[in-house]
Design a protein that fits this description.
single chain; disordered N terminus; alpha+beta; 12 helices; globular; about 500 residues
Length: about 500
């Protein structure tokens, strides 16, 4: 199976203009599927949404409104057309039409495709740190804690400022539908202040974010890291650039001060933004097609052995894109869980513990940290695997490359079922024989960063929020000289 996914950013010419026309880069990444696929299990290649999706992708290319994929495509063209790249210029970007059929699960990619996709996004992420992206923003998505009265007031103030006639662009602002009849937000009063607000203040719900993520050019969150995680959860595939104001407790991901939101947003819209691409995982639940009470089957033999074409052992039962972690634990069961880990098509180990935490670098400071896992800089392209209260003295956290496909399964002989959660949401029971497939997502999370931020800022954040390596400094010795000895001798004689 052959696949070429190339990465980077298109070169801008010396006059600051785009070197390729708008229509040239509004094409999706081409993913060609070979029927003779020896790198993925046939069960994994069956789409839970559309069984013919892989064949459709092999026959045609489609446009994408995911700005990350647009940048990857622009670089593919620039590499073919130009010998050198310049990453110091501003990058202007428009969105292409969106089609739900364009979505391809990471588990459908071969090993080579997954590796090239990961390397492409990795290279793009590094280069995005040195340029500004100028987006044509017209539709803005606002997210806040809908149960916090103080934050609702702040959200109203921001919405009023964005809708004001003083803005150079007539923005359309979407807020959560629960605020439509909220007395504190007072949507009716906000519209009555200025008739031009009518039709430009709209409301979103979970279904709109799922089916029409391309509607939003830019996302703003008001809250803490949990609010940002909720934004990631709402946008399971295509996600707009997200700028987060720090109004929560810790603030690993929320980098902007709300008190200066007018200046922050004006700079972002007029001068461009700097984006950090955060690795996300795609997790797919695979249900066994064997009766749960049949304990003669061996999950290891099923997952590393050959699978007959007309006898698929497992079937997909839902996929989730997560920013922090996937946790497979014992759930309400009083006894520890029994799980088996697989890396690509090889058996890795069995884990008897309260559970297993599989974290992204972003999630390394969350449950992974509490379970004794390593702190990991968010730019590292890795998968962190940590056991939760393992019933062994020898299990240590492991760090795997993001180019592997990890599987966490419940063996047929397990005494109890296990439970999986995704970023702390969507609790799902895994029966004996079921497993979860985990791989790097094709849709990273675009986190807007302050201008001039650097990789060292992460060290400052863990020092500030977690008091990392904080202790009183050891006192130094005071060297004695002859004069000090003579003076001390005289003092003792007195």
């Amino acid at each position: 199976m052959e696949q070429a996914i190339e990465s980077g950013i298109e070169n801008e010419d010396r006059d600051g203009g785009s070197s390729t026309s708008e229509s040239e880069y509004q094409h999706a990444l081409e993913v060609v599927f070979d029927e003779e696929n020896a790198k993925r299990r046939k069960s994994s290649l069956v789409s839970s949404e559309n069984p013919n999706l892989a064949q459709q992708q092999a026959k045609k290319r489609e446009t994408t409104s995911c700005f990350v994929h647009q940048l990857l495509e622009r670089t593919r063209k620039s590499r073919n057309d130009q010998p050198t790249l310049n990453y110091n210029e501003d990058c202007n970007l428009d969105k292409a039409p969106y089609s739900r059929d364009q979505a391809v699960h990471s588990r459908l990619l071969t090993k080579r495709q997954l590796s090239e996709m990961a390397i492409g996004v990795r290279e793009l992420s590094k280069r995005l740190g040195s340029i500004r992206l100028k987006l044509k923003v017209k539709t803005i998505f606002l997210l806040t804690k809908a149960h916090d009265a103080d934050l609702i007031v702040l959200t109203r103030n921001m919405a009023e400022w964005l809708l004001s006639k003083e803005r150079s662009t007539e923005y359309t602002v979407y807020v959560e539908n629960t605020l439509e009849h909220n007395r504190t937000f007072d949507a009716v009063g906000l519209i009555s202040q200025d008739p031009s607000h009518q039709g430009r203040l709209k409301y979103w719900d979970n279904e709109l974010c799922k089916k029409h993520p391309h509607l939003f050019d830019f996302a703003i969150t008001l809250g803490g890291d949990g609010t940002l995680l909720y934004a990631s959860w709402l946008f399971q595939r295509i996600v707009p650039p997200v700028l987060s104001f720090a109004l929560g407790s810790l603030g690993f991901l929320t980098k902007f001060d709300y008190s200066d939101y007018r200046g922050t947003l004006s700079t972002a819209f007029d001068d461009g933004i700097t984006v950090s691409l955060r690795l996300r995982f795609e997790a797919t639940i695979m249900r066994t097609q064997t009766a749960h009470e049949d304990r003669k089957h061996d999950l290891v033999e099923e997952l590393i052995g050959d699978e007959a074409e007309n006898n698929l052992t497992h079937k997909p039962n839902g996929s989730y894109t997560i920013l922090n972690d996937i946790v497979v634990d014992r759930g309400p069961n009083p006894t520890m869980s029994n799980t088996e880990l697989f890396m690509d098509n090889k058996f890795m180990t069995s884990v008897q513990a309260d559970g297993v935490c599989v974290a992204t670098p972003t999630g390394s400071t969350a449950y992974n940290l509490a379970a004794g896992g390593s702190l990991c800089h968010p730019e590292n392209p890795v998968i962190l695997v940590t056991a939760i209260c393992a019933h062994t003295l020898s299990f240590r956290p492991v760090i795997l490359p993001d180019t592997v496909v990890l599987r966490v399964g419940v063996p047929y002989g397990a005494r109890t079922s296990s439970w999986a959660s995704f970023d702390g949401r969507e609790r799902v029971e895994l029966h004996p024989g079921d497993y979860v497939t985990i791989s790097a997502s094709r849709y990273p999370f675009a986190n807007v960063m302050p201008q001039g931020s650097s990789a060292e800022d992460w060290i400052g954040s863990i020092s500030r929020t977690l008091n990392w390596n904080s202790r009183q400094k050891q006192k130094s010795f005071k060297e004695w000289d002859e004069q000090d000895v003579d003076e001390r001798s005289k003092t003792l004689k007195k």
